[in-house]
Specification:
Helix content: 25-40%
Structural class: alpha/beta
Number of strands: 23
Strand content: 15-25%
Strand order of the largest sheet: 4-3-2-8-18
Radius of gyration: 24 Å
Shape: globular
């Protein structure tokens, strides 16, 4: 039996952070990961997707450059070159994660870990035990049970495509669906988004949903609402997606981005008495402890509110400090910023208008829609606009939520999140001098409530 103080299952952002921090506090730590280090975010999520997004947006910038007077010729995408350079960057970051573990003194086991019983796991034919075990295995894309589902792509597959598809159907309406739809549409692929409901982004602010859908279509994305696929048929080199009303759409490739599930099925959680919800996510307390004493879970494999990399990092940090450090605290999920790297971008922090009202607040809503200066010189961009919305508690003047749609909105929302954590009021924004000319200055000039 290999004895440690702390065992970590999963080499993603949350697991690596927890293992490093614990080892840095003198805790004898082992981490188990059968694949490369970095998890979904580094290997097949946030990082490679954002690099694709940068590459896709360059084509729009090239087109805009011509309207600014530049002669740029006929741009052509070398798909393999972009893919190879993206993969090299992913490999570089993965190697950094491994080096951080090594330098911290973490014992790394490159094997799949499964529970044998409470506080005992098996990996690579050996047994390991510790008084504290963390599960941070993340999640994976979920495919629904439909006829012909074997023909479709999931988000993991996108990064390994050997060529750019001429046409693409994206099924879904959340972060991942909108991001890849925007990327491929910007790259010149004929792209259609099939949305099961009347609008995209079910849990976002209602005004944001409407504004985004309008602007995405202005930019060329074809959005079909109220379409729920029931089958996929391969017809030579084309895939045909049908709904129960026999309405069909076809494309060279079909991407299903209809949600993710926790990667907990193979862990033998039942042997340790660890409970999960109906989706397989591990149920945890406010201290991230599972139903098995001494076993914890953070990140996308747990039932905590947000499936975001920085949230997993924060949860891991708090857990390690609570277990082995001097600092005792709880995770605060109220002001977690998030962004959708779609086309256009969406960023938000705090509550939606509906959530604020449901929580009993008397609110004021400040909003603005305008054409960014970058596009005023462009005849082809007359319809391209940006949207900002701020929700304010009428009683305390505190900002309850901020939502932005448009270029650079993720960069702006990070600063707004800092202000909201510091309990900034609307008056604080009003008396802040705006930086001119910028889109961000509009946050300081939202004077009249709706």
């Amino acid at each position: 039996m290999n004895k440690f103080d702390f065992l970590v299952i999963g080499g993603g952002s949350g697991g690596v952070r927890a293992a490093r921090r614990a080892a840095g506090l003198g805790v004898k730590t082992a981490l188990f990961e059968k694949g490369d280090m970095g998890g979904t975010c580094v290997l097949k999520g946030c990082i490679p997707k954002k690099l694709m997004w940068y590459g896709a947006r360059l084509l729009e910038d090239i087109a805009l450059a011509e309207e600014y007077g530049w002669s740029v010729g006929n741009p052509q995408l070398n798909w393999i070159l972009q893919k190879d350079r993206r993969n090299k960057e992913v490999q570089r970051l993965s190697a950094i994660y491994q080096k951080l573990l090594d330098d911290s003194g973490v014992h790394t086991v490159h094997a799949e870990a499964v529970f044998e019983k409470e506080n005992v796991i098996q990996a690579g034919g050996q047994l390991y035990t510790a008084p504290h075990i963390l599960i941070a295995v993340g999640g994976s894309p979920h495919k629904p049970s439909l006829s012909g589902i074997e023909h479709v792509l999931i988000s993991d597959d996108i990064f390994q495509l050997e060529k750019q598809p001429s046409s693409l159907l994206v099924v879904g309406a959340g972060y991942i669906a909108l991001e890849f739809a925007g990327i491929f549409q910007s790259m010149g692929t004929s792209t259609t988004l099939l949305c099961r409901k009347d609008k995209v982004l079910t849990h976002f602010d209602e005004d944001v949903r409407s504004f985004f859908q309008e602007q995405a279509q202005v930019k060329g994305l074809n959005i079909i609402n109220n379409f729920e696929p029931v089958s996929i048929v391969k017809n030579k080199n084309v895939l045909v997606v049908s709904n129960k009303e026999k309405k069909t759409f076809s494309a060279e490739k079909v991407l299903f981005a209809t949600g993710r599930k926790a990667l907990t099925k193979s862990l033998n959680l039942e042997k340790a008495g660890i409970q999960t919800d109906s989706s397989g996510s591990i149920e945890v307390s406010d201290e991230f402890e599972t139903s098995c004493s001494g076993v914890y879970a953070v990140g996308d494999c747990s039932n905590t509110p947000f499936q975001l990399t920085p949230v997993a990092l924060a949860e891991s940090e708090i857990l390690v400090q609570n277990l082995f450090g001097r600092q005792k605290s709880k995770m605060d999920y109220q002001y977690v910023p998030s962004a959708v790297f779609s086309n256009p971008n969406i960023a938000q922090v705090g509550w939606t208008e509906k959530q604020a009202l449901e929580k009993g607040f008397s609110i004021q809503v400040f909003e603005s829609s305008f054409r960014p200066l970058k596009y005023t010189i462009s005849p082809s961009k007359k319809s391209e606009k940006m949207y900002m919305k701020m929700i304010v508690d009428q009683k305390t003047d505190q900002i309850l939520g901020c939502h932005i749609v448009g270029d650079d909105s993720p960069e702006m929302i990070q600063a707004v999140a800092i202000a909201m954590v510091a309990k900034a009021t609307k008056s604080d924004f009003d008396r802040t001098i705006g930086l001119h000319p910028s889109s961000a200055e509009e946050l300081c000039t939202l004077r009249a409530p709706r």
